[in-house]
Amino acid sequence: MTGLGALIKRNTKLYFKDKGMFFTSLVTPLILLVLYGTFLSEVYEDTFRSALEAAGTTVPDQLIGGCVGGELASSLLAVCCVTVAFCSNLLMVQDKITGARRDITISPVKNSTLALSYYLSTLVSTLLICVIATAVCLLYLSHAGWYLTTGDIARLLLDVFLLVLFGTALSSCVNFPLSTHGQSSAVGTIVSAGYGFLCGAYMPISQFSEGLQKVLSFLPGTYGTSLLRNHALRGVFEEMENQGFPSQVVEAIRDSVDCNLYFYGEKVPLNSMYLTLVCAIVILIGIYIAMNILTGKRNK
């Protein structure tokens, strides 16, 4: 464990010493929050207000703010937990490019220990940044409209932790075979541009075609986004019910923002969402372990 601890410390230090990579990872969530708040908040607000007013319901501004803020915050966290992990995990590729990995493996360090150190150091770095992003989102919600309880915050942190585990495992599998700057840049660009759409963060899956909804219902990230939405907006929906909003209207809003997900017409309960996400994490970690074992045998 001493060797593992030293490697984790070394990897984490190198990540935070790379000011460009660190500040890019840290600033990205803040930039996304500003962009969401500037360009998407009014669109979401108009959509919610028009839908509720069409149902003959008067909507307080604070309630609309809480609903829009919860959707924006959950979208940001859903994206950051994965994209930041890909950025943090680039050290694995950089060590191949610079030859540092070869130097490390010359010493009496097992390949399994080195692989685990990359995973754990990426997990630590990503989790730190995502916890900071969560704190910023909570601060934003305190101004937009606060309807969260202590239990909601605890569940949000659990969702963030699971999504960071998922993002770290996914980035470990994708980044493992990469060996050049061009490859890592290409993967980073694709993930940054596409993941937000695939997980339903940039646009709710309910707005996609029926065929695409069925395809995306197989992706674990979709359920991670929905978990964040459910816990960020639970208090908002409860307040709507307390103010006498028709249950059909509340349920329609839950459908529109992906709090309710459907797998081939069947509503997916929260427990199943957690189970899907945990199973995906376990499978991806298993794939990462298998890739390291096969590479080790090949090198021998």
Characterize the structure shown.
- The protein is mostly helical and 300 residues long.
- It has one domain (2-299).
- The chain contains twelve helices and two strands; from the N terminus they run αααααααααααββα.
- Strand 1 (262-263) and strand 2 form a beta hairpin.
List the helices and strands and how they pair.
Layout: H1 2-17, H2 19-54, H3 61-88, H4 90-98, H5 100-106, H6 111-144, H7 150-175, H8 181-198, H9 210-216, H10 220-242, H11 247-256, E1 262-263, E2 266-267, H12 270-299
Antiparallel strand pairs: 1-2
Helix pairs in contact: 1-6, 2-3, 2-6, 3-6, 3-7, 3-8, 3-10, 6-7, 7-10, 7-12, 10-12
Short structural summary:
With 300 residues, the protein is mainly alpha-helical. The protein is built from twelve helices and two strands, in the order αααααααααααββα. Strand 1 and strand 2 form a beta hairpin.
Sheet with most strands: strand arrangement:
1-2
Structural class: mainly alpha
The number of helical elements comes to 12
Taking pLDDT < 50 over at least 5 consecutive residues as the criterion, the unreliable ranges are none
The sequence of SSEs as H and E is HHHHHHHHHHHEEH
* Mean of pLDDT: 83
Largest sheet: 2 strands, antiparallel
Radius of gyration, taken over Cα atoms and rounded to an integer in Å: 21 Å
Percentage of residues in strands: under 5%
Number of E-state strands: 2
Shape descriptor = elongated
The number of domains: 1
